[in-house]
Each structure stands twice: as C-alpha cells, then as structure tokens.
Amino acid sequence: MTWPLLFLLFSSFAFSHAQLTLDYYAKTCPQFDSIVRDISQQKQTEFPATAAATLRVFFHDCAVDGCDASILIKPTAFNKSELDYDINHSLAGDAFDLITRIKTAVELACPGVVSCADILATATRNLIVITGGPHYKVQLGRKDSLVSNVSNVEAHLTRANATVDLMINKFQSMGFDVKDMVVLIGGGHTIGFVHCKEFAHRIFPTPDPTMNPILVERLRKMCANYTSNNDMSAFLDVISPGNFDNVLFKNLMKGIGVLGSDQLLHSDPRTKPFVELYANNAIAFANDFAQAMEKVSVYQVKIGQQGEVRKRCDSINHI
C-alpha cells in the first residue's frame, strides 16, 4: 500500500470516526443501552452460543466494506447478498435472532432512530463482557449499508486453511498490524466454534502430526458423521469454550489448536511472540483486545447520506 493511499485510508477513517459519539442516542432513544443490555443477557442465558455467534457475525460484517450491518441483509431473487457466500452459510441463527429481538424492542421505544449497525456493535460488546471479556467503548451513530453483495466478500474474509502471510495481508489491508491480528483472532476464537468440515482435513484420514493425539481422537468422535450433517461443529477453545479468556493461546502452545490457521500463529516468528505474551498475561490480552475492538468497531462506518436506518435489519428500506 502506498503512503498516499494509506493517508487517504486513515483520513477517511478519522473523519468517519469523528462523526460518532458515545451519547448519540441520549436524547433520541435514551432506552437504547438498557434494551440492548437486557435482551443480550436474556438471549445469552437461554442460548449460551449466542455470544460466539454474534461476535463472528460482527467480524464478518466489519471485514466486508465496514461495520454497516450489510451481513444482516437476506438475499432476494434479484440480489445475492453477503449471506450467499459459502463461508457465511455457517453463521449461526442465534445472532440474527438476537438482533431481530433488539431491533423490534428499539423500534417500539423509538421508531426509525437506531441503526442495525449500532445494535450489532453494541450487542457484541455486551456479550463479550457477559462471557468474561473486557469492556470497551462503542461509539454510536453508524448508518446501515444500502447494499449487500456476495461479490464483495471473497477479497476480505480468510478461510480456515489460510497461511499466516495471507492473514497478515488481509488485516494490513484494513489498517491493522500483526498484534491486532493475533489478539482479534484469539479473542474471536476463545468463545468461538467451527463446523467440522473446516478442519476435517486435519483429522481425516491421516491426522496432522502437529496436533495433539488426544485432541485428534476427540474431534474424530465428535465429527464422525460430518459429511452427512453439515451442522456438526466443535469449540475452538477445547478447554474453556464458554469463557472469554486467554486459554486459547495456552492451547496453541500445547499444540491443541483446532484450526490449522490458529496453530500456525504459534509457529510463525512474526506472530509467536504475541501468542506467548497473551498466553502468559491475561491482562495484556484483555487490554489489547479492547483497544483492537474499538478500532474494528469504527472501521469504514457509514455516516449521514452514506446509509440509512433500516426499518428491518434483514432488508433495505426501499424494498
């Protein structure tokens, strides 16, 4: 990336960021915070996988053209949306149900005011806190995207077999450094889950020699019928899957990473120091994750006439 382009990227980033405020809905929708908090807590209590599902949806949204709720738009007969991309087929319904619940309640309290993008960003932060992660500030005032196109996805999301070079390049293209990348992947995967088909090549038919044999045996039993059941999945942190903590990094140091792309973070000299730092220092992990999430949550946000406040989160207003 050239310096002029880098300057333009961060100038645009800074301008958009400046339009957001922490108290954006203080007068127009004072119930916003309590509505999101209460419904997020209720949903997580009912369905403990909600936090992981919502965090993944948030990342998949922000990575593709910014944090604008474009991932929430359902495909139609006339438009293949981001949800049509194969990686996004595995996004869990708990997250979409949560956003729908919150949007319904917010529309009853203050119709036409709160964007779906702000709901997704705030609910994600709340769920991270509920599961034991750090609190961070979420600035508000995002508008919802006017488009969602499947063709926009490929260049931005990485697959489970990605190399470290590819992961670094993807994050750098968004303005994030190696430390940001490692802490965000670790944070996203500490409560995350993945479908068996994404790591089946590591356990069938010949196991990856870098994997812990006990982990291989456990995953083989769990995923024995994955070819006939696409919903079969496993937690990415096999030790404390429901807790937002630094255990995933400890797992990587012991060779018990489920995804090959995760395990590579401990072998590559560019990423290994951060894996070891976060494995040994939970406070450093929490602080760095919070800072990185503040950056992610304002990535290429839409403001003003760049977007709209959707009446329904799954479709743009003029349809």
TrEMBL record:
Chain ranges of the Plant heme peroxidase family profile domain: 19-317
Q: Where is the active site?
A: 60
Where is it located?
Secreted
Entry note: cofactor: Binds 1 heme b (iron(II)-protoporphyrin IX) group per subunit.
Q: Select a single GO molecular function from the record's annotations and give it.
A: metal ion binding
For the ligand (heme b), the binding residues are 189
Q: Which reaction does it catalyse?
A: 2 a phenolic donor + H2O2 = 2 a phenolic radical donor + 2 H2O
Cofactor names: heme b; Ca(2+)
The UniProt entry's GO biological process terms, in alphabetical order, are: hydrogen peroxide catabolic process; response to oxidative stress
Q: What is its main location?
A: secreted
Annotated site residue numbers, Transition state stabilizer: 56
The record's section on Gene3D superfamilies has: 1.10.520.10, Peroxidase, domain 2
Leader sequence range is 1-18
- EC numbers listed for it are 1.11.1.7
Source species, domain of life: Eukaryota
Give the binding site residues for Ca(2+) 2: 190, 237, 245
Q: Keywords assigned by UniProt? A: Calcium, Disulfide bond, Glycoprotein, Heme, Hydrogen peroxide, Iron, Metal-binding, Oxidoreductase, Peroxidase, Secreted, Signal
Protein's job: Suggested to catalyze the deposition of the aromatic residues of suberin on the cell wall and thus play a role in cell-suberization. Removal of H(2)O(2), oxidation of toxic reductants, biosynthesis and degradation of lignin, suberization, auxin catabolism, response to environmental stresses such as wounding, pathogen attack and oxidative stress. These functions might be dependent on each isozyme/isoform in each plant tissue.
Entry's family note:
Belongs to the peroxidase family. Classical plant (class III) peroxidase subfamily.
Record's protein name:
Peroxidase
Species of provenance: Solanum tuberosum (Potato)
Taxonomy, top ranks, is: Eukaryota, Viridiplantae, Streptophyta, Embryophyta, Tracheophyta
